[in-house]
Amino acid sequence: MKSLLLLFSALLVVSAKAQEDLPRRDTAEIRARAGLPNLLRKARAADGRELRVAYLGGSITAAAGWRVKSLEGLKTRFSGVKWSEIHAAIGGTGSDLGVFRVGQDVLAHRPDLLFVEFAVNDGGADPAQIQRAMEGIVRQTWAADPETDIIFVYTVSEPFLTDLKAGKCSRSATAMEEVADHYGIPSMHFGVEVQKRLDAGTLLFKGEAPAKDAKPDPGAPMLFSTDGVHPLVETGHVLYAETVSRGFDAFETAPAAAAAVPHIPGKPLRSDHWAAAKLVPLSEGMLGGDWQKLDGGEKGDDLAKRFAKFLPQMWRTSAPGAGLSLRFKGEVVGFFDVVGPDGGQLRVKLDDGEEKTVPRFDAYCTYHRLSKFQAGSGLAGDAVHTVTVTLDEAGPDKRSVLFEKNRPDFDKNPDKYAPKVWNVGSVMLIGEVVE
User: Fold this and answer.
1) How far is it, in rounded angstroms, from Cα 158 to Cα 225?
2) What phi and psi values does residue 186 have, to the nearest 5 degrees?
């Protein structure tokens, strides 16, 4: 996980010229907007009902930090109801995957409140793409249950500090704020308190962790993180959770709603939003060649078990020439899969376009992690398209692809890297499969 953060920190500095033109929004720790009328009405009833809180985000949310602490805070604040968690955070992923999996990983569990956290992992994304995805998450959520309240939260990383010091949101948070404005969604900027402490000299954003046997220095500034991205659970995550608490202080000043307040989306912010995004399980009819469906049960395949929560089914092929073919009518197609040391290389062809190679291995692949890739986007939605994906006989030169610091692992464990496979679970689709 520590190495994964570097991948997405690097993405933050990648920007196209079009992305640089978005005027930054001013920061505000809490913007209540339309508030949380439904959650507060249910929580104040103190009638012992269960309220479910979903957390959709990346590794900052996946950590046992602000997510865990904020839920504990709700349990203390509203002790007359039963609180449960829907943990839907996946490290290293952004809203462009979150919008496809929100139905499966969040809405199927019927949340009363949804926190959405993608500002850091969306840091290098085009603002238009961020808005397509975030708006898609909002509209899917309210189509499933108009009484589900939503909060956008904005975490920070080292590349955001220049904007933050100037009192401005990052590009990604700015794009998200426009969606929040349009739909009246409350937002919390976790970086405001961080910047206050930086200005006061009481916080060090990035530094080396003290030795375990080191005597604490009460006069030293708080160490926020060791990597410039992920807060330490005992410091940075505490600040984040305290921001959530102050947010609820603000939300509770609103008059109590006497009845349900359904969220009616109305006219979209963007006509090209991704509200139709979904995951489609692979079927045997899509597959060609030698494939194995992995058992994710208790006594099944270790990799399938590890990722079964988010990939309920997983297929694997190690046979060159094996692949899948899918006909669909729609705008976007991609695949939700796993990359790792055994990852191979794919040949991907969409309609009559040029075949492209897509490696399922990268410089960080000393371990397995959930991943995805798009095979086509911005397609003619009223046309039928065909995408074919084939496992290539050739594979990436893994040692040269790995970062230099990871190459000793390759040298020590060559058998770990020898296979060339594809582990895949779902199709990411905006459209419909055509049989």
Assistant:
1) 10
2) -65, 150
Q: Is 278-433 assigned to CATH 3.40.50.300?
A: no
Please report the beta strands in 20-100, taking only residues with DSSP state E, as ranges in sequence order. 30-31, 50-57, 82-89
Domain with CATH 3.40.50.1110 in the chain: 2-251
pLDDT confidence of 397, banded at 50, 70, 90? very high
Per-residue pLDDT, averaged over 134-161, amounts to: 99
Tens digits of per-residue pLDDT, 303-352?
Answer: 999 999 999 999 999 999 999 999 999 999 999 999 999 999 999 999 99
Alpha-carbon distance of 338 to 90, in angstroms, equals: 12
3-state secondary structure of 282: coil
Q: Which two tokens stand for residue 423?
A: 């582990």
Other beta carbons within 10 angstroms of residue 201's beta carbon come to 8
Pairing outcome for strands 356-359 and 314-317: unpaired
Cβ neighbors of 281 (< 8 A, separation 6 or more) are 312, 313, 425, 426, 427
Q: Which of 12-26, 136-150, 373-387 has the lowest mean pLDDT?
A: 12-26
| Radius of gyration for the chain, computed over Cα atoms and rounded to the nearest angstrom | 22
DSSP state of 335: E
Query: Coil, strand or helix: which one is 98?
Result: helix
**Nearest to 108, CA basis, from 293, 259, 309, 306:** 309
User: Which residues make up the CATH 2.60.120.260 domain(s) of the chain?
Assistant: 278-433
**Nearest one of 43, 246, 45, 28 to 149, comparing CA atoms:** 43
Q: Using an 8 Å Cβ cutoff, are 164 and 155 in contact? A: no
Collapsing DSSP to helix, strand or coil, 319 comes out as: coil
* Residue 208, C-beta contacts closer than 8 angstroms, at least 6 positions apart: 226
pLDDT of residue 21: 66
Q: If we measure between CA atoms, which residue out of 365, 432, 428 comes closest to residue 96?
A: 428
- Strands 292-294 and 314-317, how do they pair? antiparallel
Instruction: Give the contacts of 258 (CB within 8 A, at least 6 positions apart).
Output: 41
Q: What is the DSSP string of 234-249?
A: TTHHHHHHHHHHHHHH
Q: How many CB atoms lie within 10 A of CB 281?
A: 13
Q: Name the pLDDT band for 1 (thresholds 50, 70, 90).
A: very low
CATH superfamily, with its number, for domain 2-251: SGNH hydrolase (3.40.50.1110)
